[in-house]
Write a structure and sequence with these properties.
By secondary structure, this protein is an alpha/beta fold. The chain is built from 13 helices and twelve strands. It has helices at 3-37, 57-74, 90-102, 119-127, 151-166, 185-198, 215-229, 242-254, 270-278, 289-304, 341-345, 352-355, 361-367, and strands spanning 46-51, 80-85, 107-110, 132-135, 145-149, 174-179, 204-209, 234-239, 284-286, 315-317, 325-330, 333-335. It has a seven-stranded mixed beta sheet, sandwiched between helices. The relative contact order is 0.15.
Length: 370
């Protein structure tokens, strides 16, 4: 592991520990307050959890169970989590907020499909006395707290990875930039960080904002880029996440590339990790979901009980509609062949058996993944 990755890994470990300790402290403080004053709602609270879509593996596989588990731990198993997935439909998500208000949840965790479109529903929740935690994406409206990864840093990490892969040949051709959806404020931050690394160091032939983050849309955009630029001139692809990287790589293969150019990604999805093992995708961004989920759960439980967030959220950020939002930001790690053992395997995100299916066994053996 190089020095940059080692520092990032240490930062992740420190953040995980800090969130864990904060969780313990808050739970204890909560119990003490209840005993001392009889105030608060106790552990029998209802938390609403709204996630944006089920195309990206992380939401159902990691975020939902991790948040539910942490809320249960913080409330001695007495809390109820009411869950809904918007399936990339902003109108449906607004209806889901209405349902949560009707169900009289004590706090709401929302990962917005569309950060602007959710603002009115956030306001409705607040008017009903329901505090709102923005999860992973900075929703607009009067939210009470926010947790995510350092999203601009994600873009920096992705840009640096692509430059590393290109090396001395960074200006020998053109790259394609495949950004995320314009409805996702994180996509703008990824793009900003990536441009800060890439501008002036590479030639950007084509750049796209990919509707709804869908792999099929990235595939179509990549086909158009190949047709416009020419396959002989494309030397690399910035992809904002792994799902889109899959669609991009399919287009590159269909485009007749003798050797695939380096492609970035994000989320360390299983298919993305397998493509990295196979040498089809150069890098992803590993985002440790446990500390992010723990922070969301911790803040939601505290807010549901009427407690302050001072011991949990040490940072503050501004949204277009709200200033000084208590925030927890979790650091990220560049994921390449070199550190699969030290990241997703070490943290138990995947097992060797899950990654190294028969199709990838030879490549896994060559990397020493056993």
């Amino acid at each position: 592991m190089n020095m940059r990755m080692r520092r990032a890994a240490v930062a992740v470990a420190a953040t995980t520990m800090a969130v864990s300790l904060a969780a313990c402290g808050s739970a204890k403080e909560s119990g003490d307050k209840t005993k001392e004053s009889g105030a608060g709602k106790g552990d029998a609270i209802k938390i609403g959890l709204l996630l944006p879509e089920n195309q990206t593996a992380r939401y159902e596989k990691f975020d939902k169970p991790l948040i539910e588990k942490k809320i249960s731990e913080l409330t001695n198993g007495k809390a109820e989590v009411i869950y809904a997935n918007a399936k990339q439909d902003a109108t449906l998500q607004n209806q889901q907020v209405d349902t949560m208000i009707t169900n009289k949840v004590n706090a709401l965790i929302v990962d917005a499909v569309d950060s602007k479109a959710i603002a009115g529903s956030v306001k409705k929740a607040k008017e009903a006395g329901i505090p709102v935690v923005a999860f992973d994406r900075l929703a607009e409206g009067p939210i009470d707290a926010y947790t995510s990864f350092d999203n601009e840093e994600v873009g920096h990490v992705q840009g640096k990875a692509l430059l590393e892969a290109l090396g001395a040949k960074a200006k020998d051709g053109q790259i394609v930039m495949m950004n995320g959806a314009v409805t996702d404020p994180n996509a703008a931050l990824f793009k900003k960080g990536a441009h800060a690394e890439l501008d002036g160091k590479v030639n950007i032939g084509k750049e796209y904002d990919t509707k709804e983050w869908k792999p099929e849309n990235a595939n179509a955009n990549m086909e158009a880029a190949i047709s416009s630029i020419g396959k002989d001139k494309i030397i690399g692809v910035y992809s904002a996440n792994d799902g889109m990287a899959g669609g991009i790589i399919t287009a590159l293969k269909a485009g007749g590339f003798a050797k695939l150019p380096p492609v970035t990604g994000q989320d360390a999805e299983l298919a993305g990790v397998q493509r990295i093992v196979a040498g089809e995708q150069f890098a992803s961004v590993y985002k440790p979901y446990a500390p992010e989920a723990a922070a969301a759960a911790e803040m939601a439980v505290a807010l549901a009980k009427g407690e302050k967030l001072d011991s949990i959220a040490k940072e503050k950020v501004d949204s277009p509609t709200n200033k000084g939002i208590p925030t927890v930001l979790v650091p990220v790690v560049s994921l390449t062949k070199a550190n699969i053992n030290d990241t997703v395997l070490k943290d138990g995100v995947y097992t060797v058996a899950e990654i190294c299916t028969p199709k990838y066994k030879a490549a896994c053996d060559a990397l020493g993944l056993k």
